[in-house]
Each structure stands twice: as C-alpha cells, then as structure tokens.
Amino acid sequence: MKKAVFQASQSLIHTLIEQTPIAYIIMDDQYRIHYVNDSFLKLRKLDKEKTIGEVCYNISNAGSQCTYCAVRQALETGRPALLQRKDVLPDGSVRYIDDYAVLLFRDKAADRKYLLEIMVDRTEERLVRAQYQEDVEEAVRALVGLIEAKDSYTALHSKNVCTYATRIARQLHMTESEIFNISLAALLHDLGKVKIPLQIINKPGRLSDSEFHTIQLHPEFACEMLDGFVQLGDICEMIRHHHERLDGRGYPDGISDEYLSVGSRILAVADTYDAMTTNRSYRKALPRETAMEEMNRVSGSQLDAAIVAAFSEIPMEDFVAGEPGTSPDCQQPLLVRELRDDSLSDVRADQVLDIDTLESAITPEQMQAAVFEHTPCGYVILDKEHVVRYANSFFGKLVGVDAASLSGQRCELFLPGEEDEVRKTHIRMRRQTAAGIRTFDAYLIPDAAYQIYAVIDRTEESEMIRKMDIELARLLQLLQQLLLAEEEQQGIDFCSPEELSYVKDKIEKIALQREQDGISFDLG
Q1: How many CA atoms lie within 13 A of 68 on its CB side?
Q2: CATH 1.10.3210.10 for domain 157-321
C-alpha cells in the first residue's frame, strides 16, 4: 500500500515562510521583487514599502547588477545555485550569508520566470571564528614576544617574516585560510629558539660545529612545543622545514624539493630575505639590491625560483618596517558588496504579484517542494501527539535517517532537555542521533493544528568552537609553562620583569575574555 504523502496547504506554507528564521524572497527574471518575509527585512534592515516592487540590485547594489549573483546563476543554468557572501549594510554592520536561488515556476502567458531566493544568516558562526582568531593571535604574539625578548639582535624578525610571507602568499593568490596558516607559521617559525642557550643565540662570532648543530634543532623544538595542537597542525610542517633547501642540503631532515610544501618554501624566502637585510650580531644589514641578487643566485638550489620571482615583484612600499602586513585572517573567500538605500526605482508595488495570489500560478505542492526541499534548513511538522506528519530531506540527513521513514513515527527530539540553551527566538539543542551527536537551533513556528519546527544545523560550528577552546587553552598553558620556567630559572633566562608582567597580562586578558564569553579554562 502506498504511503500517503503529507501536503501542506497554502495557508500553512504561508505561515511557515512568514515565521521561519530563514529569509525568503520571490522575484521574477527581471530581478523585480514580488515578496519578502520578515526574516529578510530584519536581515537586511529594510522596510517592506521600499522593497516590494523594486529591482533587487537597485536596493542592494546602487543600481548595478551584482558581479556574483545566485539568482542569475540559477536563471542561466536552470539549476539551484549557492553563493557565500559578506554584505556590508548601510549602517556599516556586516552580515555573512549563504545565498541560494531556485526556479519556482514559469508564467507561460507572460513568458516570465519566477525564482525563490533563500538566505541563511551565518553571521554568528563567522563572528565566533573571528573572536577565536583574535584570541589566538594575542596568544601567538605573546609567544613571539618571548622569542624576541631572548634574541636581542632580531627583535622584529618574526613580525618582518610574517609581513613578507603574508604578502608573498597574496601575490601567489592563495586562499585566505592558506594565508592565515602561513602568517601564523611565520610568527612562530623561531619559537624553538626559546630552548637554545642565550650565549649561542647572541654569539657575535662564528659558531662552532656543536653550537651550529644546537641552532639547527630549533625547528624541531618548535614542533615539539606545538605537538598535539590540531588547529595548528598545518603550520608545524612549515615551521619544521623553513630551513630546508630544494637540493636537500638543509636541516633538520635534509629533504629535497619534492617533499617541501609551498608554505615552507615561502617561509624560507621570507626568512632568508629578512636575515640578510637585518643587522645581526656578526654583520650589518645588506641593502635590498644585494639581498635580492644573492637570493636570485641561490634560486633553484636553495630557494624556490618562482617564489623568489613573486617576492621580487612586490613593491617595497607595500611593507611597513617593523610591523606585520595584513593581519592573519582565516575566513574563507566571500563575495563582498555594499548595500545602499539610494537609487531606488520608481516601480509601483501594486504592479507586482503578491504571495497570497500565487495559488493561481503555483500549486501548494510546488511551493512546498521549493521551500522544504531546497532550503538548507530542517523542517519538521508534528501533530499534537508529536507524531511526524512531514520531515524534509535536510532534516533526515541531519539526524541520519531517511526523511520519508519518519512519517507516522513519534518524535521526541524536541522535548526539553537539561542542557538546552534557551535563547530569545529559539532553543539550542544537543542530541544523540543516528548520525551521531548533533547540535542545532530549533525554532518553533506557532500554528493551531501543528507543531512546526525550523531546524538550523549548528553541529560544525559547535564542534569548531569546542576544538578552538581546547586549542586556545593549550596555547595559554604553553605560555604559562614558559613563564614558569623563567620564574624558576630553569634555563629560559631572557625576560625582564616588565616583559614578564606584559605577557602575564596578555594571558589573563585572554582567559578573562573567554570566561566572560561563558568559557572557562583550567590553567593550573
């Protein structure tokens, strides 16, 4: 016997898209807006009167079509489209958005297509990631401060290498996440020197063979100190190999070009250049021209020729002496455009189609399919006994079962739990499912006949935060261990009382901020 498929009425679908946290827009193939829900207006901080009937890019891009447009992509390909975007609103605030577009129906008489644009606000997780980045950078710079305090002759070396390496990575058009990792690796590439005796680090003359062997251990020492940091794992290889050579005559492993990552090659160029153009205990700084001549001479044997060439093309005015270049940023590349209030068109709102009159053009089944099956959000409709009347495929993937098999089954997933976090508009839940532990935001949409839930998956975000907090706690613990060694005079004798106090303040500031954010660290 064929199982009956739940069909939502037009009024139920209307209730859902009006109350959902997801932003919905209906527009035609001329980009004229016919409908927006309240979530869209809140997301974009717009008035409905200024939106309905307008061409979307007149509102959002000052009269020019957007360079990247999910709606245009859907029109051109006939398939659903997705773009990730960073929008700057007229008041200067920022929204990070997953922007979807799907063809809704075609009006044959008017030869016009209508589309459903779907926007999911990802600002919260982006801001969480950004805050973590700030905290990590604070801790990393405190570590760098320890390195610089020990090596008086290269006080700005780590920051300079970060500047050069970051700029090279941008010159090579690497992704923002790759650039961020290279920036961190550059800042920490000499971390292992805190374990090298001070008399060797600052020796004015030529090093003995045994002293040089000790110096060669600093990349290994750095990796040992960072061992076990999952989020920093990608940079350990770069740090370990920043003194390797293409011809295999470098250290500590003596590996050749085929085993060297792009990041380690970039660090080698940046480190070599700054070493030659900075005053050292045994010689004066070389002019840029002389340093570049020497780097070109060893290109292909010691340094990567393509990276040396890319570095030589960067104007020196791009660098500010003694300061890092672009601050590390791990956000994925986003399409950026500003939203303005001016340049609105003069089309009257009463010339457009209203959602309540769509029934003559599109069936409830078509609207249900468009909303439920194309939105990256779980939709679940329960009756008053918590029996599932409908669950979309996204929700099925979230909990690890076939969505159709849930129909007719009792669902206790949304019953209150002790660890639930009640927020102003929704509840954040953490549940064990067939797909494993899942964290999600559940929005209850009021309806007289049903319990309707919109479910936004936050599992990746929650797991990311958990790992970040563990990593940051360990990074702070590493700082404390170094400071404890200094205080107990265990061989790391390089911090003045003022420098020691400064780094301690850094640690306390970060830990306090995390506690205020509801996260506590046991740093004892």
Answers
A1: 16
A2: yes
